[in-house]
Design a protein that fits this description.
This protein is mainly alpha-helical and 98 residues long. The protein has one domain. The protein is 81% helix and 4% strand. The protein contains three helices and two strands. Strands 1-2 form a two-stranded antiparallel sheet. Helix 1 runs antiparallel to helix 3.
Amino acid sequence: MMIFRELFLAFAQIFDLVIQLYIFIVIARVILSWVNPDPYNPIVRFLCSVTDPVLYRMQRLVPLQFGGIDFSPFVLLLALTFFKRVVFAIFLQLASSF
């Protein structure tokens, strides 16, 4: 049973790492939106291709644009943080049950 405990703890850490990495990608995309980056730069294209589908869905669900400022990345960051904490707690609860 200790193997299952360690397996759930490993999944929890991997999940936490992936969500944290995506949070950093969203923050980098927000910082890039403040400047006029070259759209043909591979890094800019990667950041846009990874974040734009999620941000477009957020903008359709919750249109949060006030005065030309888009608050959907902020809502996405809050949702990711909430999701990360809830799922991480579930993994830890499952790990402690073994």
